[in-house]
């Protein structure tokens, strides 16, 4: 009996998944537990396993297609088994259409497009107003390449640069027969210095992760009343301490590791900052779990260091290194990004001196960390070299008031300017 393979729920916030890759083809034999596909969710790329043995009778979606939870993606059964009823049910319920049907539909649409475009050269040119397909109808040439829609589509499909095609239509407009008769050998070898080329826009599919980031940050920005406070910190002592620690530490400690540790210690002293808003109540978290923002191509991931305040610098450095590598390789599991009570976002390595960050819900605050700057400072009436760093705390005003945020920042500043307490 044929078995439906449906899009599973691979994360707690997942609403749909995108087939990143198929690991099988139609006709392949699979066993229970085999991974047949990789699915891009809102948090990571996950594997889809089958629970039944059999033959892959039908793959209903292509790589790159988005499928809602419970949507049919494949059918497994005995070789030669009739699954027409399953395919009909999938189509009638709005599921993914059969690839052969899709090709037939595309072919029909193409025929319609070609039929409607046969006389377009005459229809889109008006003897009074001139080229109706250009924005400046009846106006002087604005430098754009004039071509009919059909000719543009044909050129795109064949990889022809319209700048190399001579137009035979009205006012030098490129039409269908110009593309059909185009010979690459006749293309000009060099463009005129004054000539300009109209470049096509590029569209990029929005990944599930980017969709989720957009939704969550929009909700955070417009539902949580943000306010910001910035403080400047003397990092000279941290600079010297880190150098000495790395001479004896097994795991190399970064400046961000020290900031994370200092934040965790400060959160223990200011529990209101370590809280979340839940409508009719504020939850003050018992654990201190600091998330670290990691930038990847699709956006930001926020792996979490659990019980950060109870761990030493060396352990934080080791865990942070592993989590960051997993984030960059898209290997983070959903549970490694859950349960944060505070977030640190650091752009100092890119030379950014100061910025504001959007709160990572359901956190009450997020700390934006800038670069360590070398600049002259005044100490005991003398100008000496100094190392300074600005941090900006974004706070949810429903939970944290200005004075509370200021006290937290001053505690953090004190800890970073006297880092010996962090290693004791």
TrEMBL record:
Which Pfam family, just one, is annotated for this protein?
2-oxoacid_dh
Acidic residues composition bias: which ranges? 114-124
UniProt lists compositionally biased (Low complexity) regions at 184-196
Region annotation Disordered: residue ranges? 90-146, 183-205
Q: How is the cofactor bound?
A: Binds 1 lipoyl cofactor covalently.
* Record PROSITE patterns: BIOTINYL_LIPOYL, LIPOYL, PSBD
Q: Does the keyword Transferase apply?
A: yes
Query: According to the UniProt entry, which residue ranges have a biased composition of type Basic and acidic residues?
Result: 132-145
Q: Name one GO biological process term.
A: pyruvate decarboxylation to acetyl-CoA
The Swiss-Prot or TrEMBL record lists the needed cofactor(s) as: (R)-lipoate
Q: Name one GO cellular component term.
A: pyruvate dehydrogenase complex
SUPFAM superfamilies for the chain? CoA-dependent acyltransferases, Peripheral subunit-binding domain of 2-oxo acid dehydrogenase complex, Single hybrid motif
Keywords from UniProt, A to Z, are:
Acyltransferase, Lipoyl, Pyruvate, Transferase
For this UniProt entry, the molecular function terms from Gene Ontology, in alphabetical order, are: dihydrolipoyllysine-residue acetyltransferase activity
Enzyme nomenclature, EC number: 2.3.1.12
Catalyses: N(6)-[(R)-dihydrolipoyl]-L-lysyl-[protein] + acetyl-CoA = N(6)-[(R)-S(8)-acetyldihydrolipoyl]-L-lysyl-[protein] + CoA
Q: Which PANTHER family match?
A: DIHYDROLIPOAMIDE ACETYL/SUCCINYL-TRANSFERASE-RELATED, DIHYDROLIPOYLLYSINE-RESIDUE ACETYLTRANSFERASE COMPONENT OF PYRUVATE DEHYDROGENASE COMPLEX, MITOCHONDRIAL-RELATED
Q: What job does the chain carry out?
A: The pyruvate dehydrogenase complex catalyzes the overall conversion of pyruvate to acetyl-CoA and CO(2). It contains multiple copies of three enzymatic components: pyruvate dehydrogenase (E1), dihydrolipoamide acetyltransferase (E2) and lipoamide dehydrogenase (E3).
The UniProt subunit note reads as follows: Forms a 24-polypeptide structural core with octahedral symmetry.
Q: What family name appears in the similarity comment?
A: Belongs to the 2-oxoacid dehydrogenase family.
What protein does this entry describe? Answer: Acetyltransferase component of pyruvate dehydrogenase complex
What organism is the protein native to?
Answer: Fodinibius salipaludis
């Amino acid at each position: 009996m044929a078995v439906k393979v449906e899009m599973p729920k691979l994360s707690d916030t997942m609403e749909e998944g995108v087939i990143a890759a198929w690991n099988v083809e139609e006709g392949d034999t699979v066993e229970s537990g085999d991974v047949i596909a990789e699915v891009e969710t809102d948090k990571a790329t996950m594997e889809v396993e089958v629970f039944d043995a059999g033959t892959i009778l039908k793959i209903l979606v292509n790589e790159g297609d988005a499928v809602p939870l419970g949507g049919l993606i494949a059918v497994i059964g005995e070789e030669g088994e009739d699954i027409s009823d399953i395919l009909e049910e999938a189509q009638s319920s709005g599921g993914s259409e059969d690839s052969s049907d899709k090709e037939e539909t595309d072919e029909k649409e193409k025929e319609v497009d070609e039929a409607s475009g046969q006389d377009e050269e005459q229809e889109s040119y008006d003897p009074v107003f001139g080229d109706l397909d250009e924005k400046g109808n009846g106006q002087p040439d604005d430098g754009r390449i004039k071509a009919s829609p059909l000719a543009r589509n044909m050129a795109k499909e064949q990889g022809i640069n319209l700048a190399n095609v001579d137009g035979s239509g009205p006012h030098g407009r490129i039409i269908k027969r110009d593309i059909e008769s185009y010979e690459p050998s006749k293309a000009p070898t060099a463009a005129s210095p004054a000539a300009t080329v109209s470049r096509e826009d590029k569209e990029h599919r929005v990944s599930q992760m980017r969709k989720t980031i957009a939704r969550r940050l929009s909700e955070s920005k417009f539902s949580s009343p943000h306010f910001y406070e910035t403080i400047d910190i003397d990092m000279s002592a941290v600079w010297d301490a880190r150098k000495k620690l790395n001479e004896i530490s097994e795991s190399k400690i970064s400046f961000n590791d020290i900031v994370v540790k200092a934040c965790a210690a400060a959160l223990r002293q200011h529990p209101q900052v370590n809280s979340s808003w839940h409508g009719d109540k504020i939850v003050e978290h018992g654990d201190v779990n600091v998330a670290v923002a990691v930038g990847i191509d699709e956006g930001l991931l926020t792996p979490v260091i659990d019980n950060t305040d109870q761990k030493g610098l060396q352990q934080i450095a080791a865990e942070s290194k592993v989590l960051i590598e997993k984030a960059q390789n898209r290997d983070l599991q959903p549970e490694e990004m859950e349960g944060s009570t505070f977030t640190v976002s650091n752009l100092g390595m890119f030379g950014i001196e100061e910025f504001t960050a959007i709160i990572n819900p359901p956190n009450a605050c997020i700390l934006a960390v800038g670069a360590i700057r070398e600049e002259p400072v005044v100490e005991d009436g003398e100008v000496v070299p100094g190392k300074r760093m600005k941090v900006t705390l974004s706070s949810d005003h429903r939970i944290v008031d200005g004075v509370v945020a200021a006290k937290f920042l001053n505690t953090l500043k004190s800890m970073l300017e006297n880092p010996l307490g962090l290693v004791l």
